[in-house]
Amino acid sequence: MAEFSLAINEEQEQLKDWVHQFAKDVIRPAGEEWDEREEFPWPIVQEAAKIGLYGFDFMAQAMFDASGLTMPLVIEELFWGDAGIGLSIMGSGLAAAGIAGNGTAEQVMEWVPQCYGTADDVKLAAFCVSEPDAGSDVSSLRTRAVYDEAKDEWVLNGTKAWITNGGIANIHVVVAAVDPELKGRGQASFIVPPDTPGLSQGQKYKKHGIKASHTTEVVLEDVRVPGSCLLGGKEKLDEKLARAREALNKPATESSGKQPAMATFEATRPAVGAMAIGVARAAYEYSLQYAQERMAFGKPIIKNQSIAFMLADMITEIDAARLLVHRAAWLSRNGKYVNAEGSQSKLKAGRVAVWTTERAIQILGGYGYTREYPVERWHRDAKIFDIFEGTEQIQQLVISRAISGLRIE
């Protein structure tokens, strides 16, 4: 286990600078265009793959860093460039995390590389959990997985909602109910391989922000996948279901295994926090420069306490959120969560991103409210961090349950 430290080593510093340069030279100049187009930015992702920024080797290096800090460092720089494009580059990582968190070693080695493809043949992956009637309430999924013992196949039926890379992905990781009576304890994760019949893209959402990220429904109609595509394997699932059935009459605080979706989200919430910090930092740096250059009443507006104090609060909140994210990333990597620190980091970072980008608009005044300046786009992008991978209120619920040991409803 790595000793607890928030110090960034020389290799991480160099990596951070390298990613920042790509974000500065390639991502940020393209942000406005792809926001307007509302299309997946294939050219940018392909360019990231060519330099080694998008791919299995890079993501494995970042994910398995013993300090846990490499991933949030990389993500912050990408999202400093642009959140929609950043999510297009990082979107496959959620599916990869779902495989790594729930699959066997053999499944990880077989499927995670396929989530990314190669520099010459880029692939995407999608993690499919939310549904039209089950967003925050993950325990109420209606998508069903039924085992066909004669063929050793699972048959999936249902509709998933709000899926990043949905329909255009090569690999879909689908969380489905195998025993609805057990709710969250009766769920499992499945790999849907490329070109599997019955999986299709539903509606594509027209979003408030992160418009470059491809977000759709995923429809599953009698989708058949081999038994080997059940993450973790059938023996492990049967054991988990047996424990869950025995626990039906026990107090809710007694656990019989993590939900597949929750296991993934617990691991990725610090990463989402880092995304929010990247957007917040972009807005802070832009408004700081603007305040130093903008003249009013014969002096730069930063010389007014009302502006200077806003900027002082912005950098303080950003630094505080980053420290929470880095702490959570280290704890997650080393299995040391105690009081839902991952949820704490995402809760704080999401709030900071929304507040900071709103303050940036205020500093720019009327200009900040126009699309001529990027802060209005960053404000639109920031709001998603209060919503996806668990809303602000869900994070509060998770944290309150962790600190109290009670089933807060």
Percent of residues in beta strands: 5-15%
Report the span from N to C terminus.
36 Å
SS-based class: alpha+beta
**Structural domain count:** 3
The CATH homologous superfamily of the largest domain is named Butyryl-CoA Dehydrogenase, subunit A, domain 3
Major β-sheet, in short? Answer: 4 strands, antiparallel
Mean residue pLDDT: 93
Shape: globular
Helix content: 40-55%
Radius of gyration: 22 Å
N to C succession of SSEs = HHHHHHHEEEEEEEHHEEHHHH
User: How are strands sequenced across the largest beta sheet?
Assistant: 2-3-7-6
Spans of at least 5 consecutive residues whose pLDDT stays below 50 are none
The level 1 CATH classification of the largest domain is Mainly Alpha
- CATH fold-type name of the largest domain: Butyryl-CoA Dehydrogenase, subunit A, domain 3
Describe the structure concisely for a colleague:
The protein is an alpha+beta fold and 409 residues long.
What is this structure's SSE topology?
Blueprint: H1 10-37, H2 42-50, H3 56-63, H4 70-81, H5 83-90, H6 92-102, H7 105-111, E1 125-128, E2 144-148, E3 153-164, E4 171-177, E5 187-192, E6 199-204, E7 215-226, H8 234-246, H9 260-293, E8 295-296, E9 299-300, H10 305-333, H11 341-364, H12 375-382, H13 392-404
Parallel strand pairs: 1-4
Antiparallel strand pairs: 2-3, 3-7, 4-5, 6-7, 8-9
Helix pairs in contact: 1-4, 1-5, 4-5, 4-9, 6-9, 9-10, 9-11, 9-12, 10-11, 11-12, 11-13
Task: List its traits.
Butyryl-CoA Dehydrogenase, subunit A, domain 2; 3 domains; four-stranded antiparallel sheet; Butyryl-Coa Dehydrogenase, subunit A, domain 1
